[in-house]
Structures are given as structure tokens and as C-alpha cells.
Amino acid sequence: MNDATIRQQVLDALKSVAPEIEPQHLRCDRPLREEVDLDSMDWLRFLGTLHRSTGVNIPEADYQQLDSVDALVAYLRPRMG
User: Fold this and answer.
1) What is the 3 state secondary structure string of the chain?
2) pTM
3) Which helix (H) or strand (E) holds 47?
4) Domains, the chain, ranges and CATH?
5) Residues 1-48: pLDDT tens digits?
6) Taking each helix axis from N to C terminus, what angle separates 69-76 and 3-17, rounded to the nearest 10 degrees?
């Protein structure tokens, strides 16, 4: 799977949790929770939605490294085969 497809899945999952965001205005290298102002529950819902749409299990131990759209794409790429 290519990065553009993975990025779109990340953004779609994000839009499902925060429909007010405008993906074209997101800086993909910046901390996502600050860019979108997600609280803890929104963050967990986002990761759950991402899990359901990609089939990738994201263990809680990995949450800290998933701080931006770019980091999520890099994390998901090898796991989506």
C-alpha cells in the first residue's frame, strides 16, 4: 500500500472523529493532537477507527510514537503489507 492511500485512511479516520477539521490545512509533521485539539477520548476513538479501517492493531505502548500524520503513515506502512 502506498503512502498516499495510507495518509487518506488516516485523514478519513480523523474526520470521523473531528468532522470540523480541514485536512488540507493540517501540517502532517506537527503533533496531531495539537493540530486538531483532540482530547484523550477523541484520540482513543480516532485510533479505534483507524484500527477498524486498516486492520492494524495499535498497542497502547506505541501511542506515544504516533504523534503526527507522518508518524502514523510511517507506522502503518510496514504493518499493512
Assistant:
1) CCHHHHHHHHHHHHHHHCCCCCHHHCCCCCCHHHHHCCCHHHHHHHHHHHHHHHCCCCCHHHHHHCCCHHHHHHHHHHHCC
2) 0.91
3) helix 40-54
4) 3-79 (1.10.1200.10)
5) 899 999 999 999 999 999 999 988 999 999 988 888 888 999 999 999
6) 120
The Cα 50–Cα 20 span in angstroms is: 18
Q: CA torsion, points 21, 59, 79, 26, in degrees to nearest 10?
A: 20
Note the pLDDT of residue 38: 87
Place of cell 499493512: 80
